[in-house]
Structure formats: structure tokens, C-alpha cells
């Protein structure tokens, strides 16, 4: 059996560091990367998950009230006729959204997708 040389140890160290870095990135907690984005006609703002607030967004029909509370966001009230956006429920995972088409307001959670959805089970 041959003895390892200094260059062999360097290559082994670099490969081990790369493996650890890739492993830690794929299993790291992504909570800090998630945020809510609220968009209107002349309005686009990003909000942290942990800051509870009420946002009023002006649209062509009037004010749409969006609530952010306990890491979830939802449309509480809107001047649209059918109130579909109000019935859409609470946005709590990246990729989910609540949309008021008549008043042109969108509430989205942005960030890295996590977990398993119904399609991939």
C-alpha cells in the first residue's frame, strides 16, 4: 500500500469541504429567506413574516385590506363583487397566493419552497 502525500490530503480536504457545504445548503432552515409580497397597480412591497400588520392597497375598485399575522397573510376585505380573494384563505407556504383580479391585488409568499405538496406524494 502506498502512503498518502501532502497533495492527496489537500484533495481529500477540498472534496470533504465541498460535500459538507452542499449537504448543509440542502438541509438548512430557509425561514429567513421567506417573505410576503403584496402587489397592486402602483404598489409593490415586501414584508417580513414575523411582523404583524394590516396593509391597504388601492385598486381600481377601491381599497383591499391585507392582513399579515403569525406568519400567514390573507385578504380580509375587498370591494370586488364575488369576494373570491377573501375566501381563498391564508397564504402560509412559498408559492401560495391570494389574488383579487377585479381590484388587481396579489398577495404571495416568496422564498424557497419546502415540504411536500399533494402532487408529489
Class per helix and strand makeup: alpha+beta
Q: Could you name the CATH topology of the domain at 31-110?
A: mini-chromosome maintenance (MCM) complex, domain 2
The CATH homologous superfamily of the domain at 31-110 corresponds to N-utilization substance G protein NusG, insert domain
Helical content band: 10-25%
| SSE series | HEEEEEHEE
Biggest pleated sheet: 4 strands, antiparallel
Instruction: List low-pLDDT spans.
Output: none
Verbal overview:
- This protein is α+β, with helices and mostly antiparallel strands and 121 residues long.
- It has a domain at 31-110: mini-chromosome maintenance (MCM) complex, domain 2.
- Helices cover 21% and strands 34% of the residues.
- It is built from two helices and seven strands, in the order αβββββαββ.
- It has helices spanning 6-26, 84-87, and strands at 35-39, 44-48, 53-59, 62-69, 72-77, 97-100, 105-110.
- It has a four-stranded antiparallel sheet with strand order 2-1-7-6. It has a three-stranded antiparallel sheet with strand order 3-4-5.
- The longest helix is centred in the N-terminal third of the chain and has 21 residues, at 6-26.
- It is rod-shaped and about 80 Å long.
- The mean pLDDT is 86.
